[in-house]
Write a structure and sequence with these properties.
The complex is a heterodimer of chains A (433) and B (142).
Chain A: H1 6-9, H2 13-34, H3 36-45, H4 66-71, E1 85-90, E2 100-104, H5 105-121, E3 129-132, H6 140-151, E4 155-157, H7 164-174, E5 178-181, H8 183-196, E6 207-211, H9 217-227, E7 230-237, E8 242-248, E9 255-257, E10 262-267, E11 281-287, E12 298-304, E13 306-307, E14 319-320, E15 325-326, E16 331-333, E17 336-338, H10 340-348, E18 357-364, E19 367-375, H11 385-403, E20 408-412, E21 427-429
Parallel strand pairs in A: 3-4, 3-5, 5-6, 6-7, 18-21, 19-20
Antiparallel strand pairs in A: 1-2, 7-8, 8-9, 9-14, 10-11, 11-12, 12-15, 13-14, 16-17, 18-19
Chain B: E1 2-10, H1 15-25, E2 30-37, E3 41-48, H2 51-60, E4 65-76, H3 81-91, E5 96-101, E6 109-116, H4 119-129, H5 136-141
Antiparallel strand pairs in B: 1-3, 1-4, 2-3, 4-6, 5-6
The chains are: A alpha/beta (433), B alpha+beta (142).
């Protein structure tokens, strides 16, 4: 086991809690003093900064949501003057105005430290050649990974997203040992490798650090088998800091949340009540070291569970489960919650099925219909109609038992579902509600 | 015995024209074809003059393709000709998955392509019953 910062990553929990409380208090004082929107919310809830006396008091503070960031677009929630802000990132803004985040110099240092921990946790060292195929730009993935990789002294290939053939050429020629990108992109790379006649086993690629979208355990197995690498899950979100909020270690029994910088809670997304450790709910994160844009109880919309038992790797930081899905990606069909990751898991359990799929939700009359498009690979194909219909029926039956609703399975031609070089689009909702 | 090329097609406008154009541009001649269709997809089955090349070309064009062993039987081109052959196959317990007719003919016989469950058994039966079937090489040249 190697650590980037053993003292912090393996800090005894009692000491960690003391550190968290001290930093939480400072953060609350600061937002109350410098951000009118926070002061207004806290005043409305009847809470003053001095009411935060122990970690449990965190529950008393109001939540912050994506809407708060939009309402204060672009810089309204910053606690520092722009002269102290050295970097701005932003979300893609696919669902309205983008959310904008700022970093002080110290915030960037923190972020680089977190990414250095994450990459080290996945086994990268100064001898690594890290190919960073996350998009560089406003998206936090590219630059976040980049600074962490430089920090550990690895050789970074800032290939950014896209141009897949060139990515593979670089991987081959430069001897890439670790790849960072979205899990859907690495599977697309694999398809192109096949077309180019390149055997993944002949590459030096050792591991991949994949994130920015939810992916299932079955998808991990699929990636590992195809690419002959170890696949690590990394978690983060733009609003909190970017990638590096949590990372898997070699045990891969959940992702360690950097608790010296963040406090994570799990809540019931409906009632907002804090749930016990181990229960699945929405993760809420409070940043406790950030300067430019501290966030109090930020609702991530990501559904997961937290385990605070000490991990075999020696790290004391709590572990979150692989994210089940973002509540924004969840589709509710006839009252049943469906996550793309559940569909993916079912598909990958059927031999020969490729993890390229698309969910289409439509409303016919008053009834919602779910169609799942699945690509027919050569392994699945038969020249007999009966066998293909049996395949469709089998997938349908497996879906029904896993999702609890019946779905129409449509077999489609290979590569007809759009491939993504960034975050994959898994759901098309055509209901106009 | 012969090799049939089977192609998966989505039920979408232009798919069939696309596959036939790809074959045409590669100089592949279609000798026989049939389409099995459902509401969502179809399976195009082809006998062509160069199955190996057709398979490669279609795969390169990202189609899902497979090669299937079929047998082309010479059936007397007269009333009851097919019935007699089918009866003889039924008597021998041969299960037919599907069949379709050939575009060209060989002299005065019609040609029917059969996909059977047990190819070896079918060939033995044909030989025993005196049913003529065309070998691969001659079939592609017809």
């Amino acid at each position: 086991m190697s650590y980037w910062d053993k003292e912090k990553e393996c800090m005894p929990r009692e000491q960690l809690r003391e550190l968290q409380l001290r930093r939480l208090k400072e953060t609350v004082y600061r937002v109350y003093a410098f951000v009118p929107a926070y002061k207004a919310k806290m005043d409305q809830a009847g809470i003053r900064p001095e009411d935060i006396k122990c970690l449990e008091d965190l529950e008393k503070l109001p939540f912050t949501t994506k809407q708060d960031l939009r309402d204060n677009y672009p810089f309204g929630l910053f606690t520092l003057p722009m002269s102290e802000v050295v970097r701005i990132h932003s979300s893609s803004g696919t669902t309205g105005k983008p959310t904008v985040v700022g970093y002080s110099r110290k915030d960037l240092d923190t972020w680089s430290e977190l990414m250095a921990r994450a990459l080290t946790s996945a086994g990268a060292t100064r001898y690594s050649v890290i190919q960073n195929a996350y998009g560089y730009g406003l998206f936090t993935g590219g630059l976040g990974v980049h600074y962490g990789a430089e920090k550990i002294g690895a050789s970074v290939i800032p290939s950014s997203g896209g141009n897949t053939k060139r990515q593979i050429m670089l991987m081959q020629d430069f001897g890439t040992t670790e790849l960072t990108c979205t899990p859907s992109y690495v599977l697309f790379m694999y398809e192109i490798m096949q077309e180019m006649g390149i055997e993944p086993a002949d590459l030096k690629l050792r591991a991949g650090i994949f994130g920015a979208e939810p992916w299932s355990e079955n998808m991990r197995r699929d990636i590992e088998n195809k690419l002959k690498i170890k696949a690590f899950d990394i978690y983060g979100l733009t609003e909190i800091i970017g990638p590096g909020v949590a990372i898997e270690c070699g045990c891969r029994q959940g992702l360690h949340i950097a608790e010296d910088h963040f406090i994570a809670e799990i809540i019931d997304p409906q009632s907002g009540k804090v749930l016990d450790d181990g229960s699945t709910g929405e993760m809420v994160i409070t940043t406790i070291s950030k300067e430019a844009l501290p966030l109090i109880r930020y609702r991530t919309r990501d559904l997961t569970a937290i385990d605070r038992n000490i991990c075999d790797c020696g790290r004391t930081h709590a572990r979150m489960k692989k994210v089940l899905g973002r509540s924004d990606d969840m589709v509710i069909i006839r009252g049943v919650n469906v996550f793309p990751s559940m569909v993916e898991s079912v598909l990958l359990n059927i031999p020969g099925v490729e993890p390229h799929y698309l969910l289409i939700v439509e409303r016919r009359g008053t009834l919602d219909q779910l169609e799942i498009q699945v690509e027919v690979s050569e392994k699945l194909f038969s020249d007999e109609v009966r066998k293909l219909e049996e395949l469709g029926a089998l997938i349908g039956k497996e879906m029904e038992s896993a999702l609890g609703i019946n779905a129409k399975i449509r077999l489609v031609e290979p590569k007809s579902i759009q491939r993504s070089e960034g975050k994959a689009k898994r759901v098309i909702d055509r209901r106009n509600i | 015995m012969a090799k049939q090329i089977s192609v998966f097609l989505e039920n979408k406008a232009g798919r069939l024209s696309h596959v036939t154009r790809v074959l045409g541009d590669a100089g592949i001649n279609i000798r026989a074809l049939s389409i099995a269709d459902t509401s969502d997809f179809g399976i195009l089955r082809l006998i062509v003059n160069d199955p190996g090349k057709a398979y490669r070309i279609l795969k390169e064009a990202d189609f899902t393709v497979s090669e299937t062993e079929v047998v082309a039987v010479q059936v007397p081109d007269s009333p009851g000709g097919l019935a007699t052959v089918l009866e003889q196959m039924a008597e021998s317990g041969l299960n037919i998955e599907y069949l379709y007719a050939f575009l060209g003919t060989s002299e005065k016989d019609a040609l029917v392509v059969f996909k059977v469950e047990d190819l070896a058994k079918a060939c033995n039966t044909f030989e025993a019953k005196g049913i003529k079937f065309i070998d691969e090489k001659h079939l592609y040249e017809l």
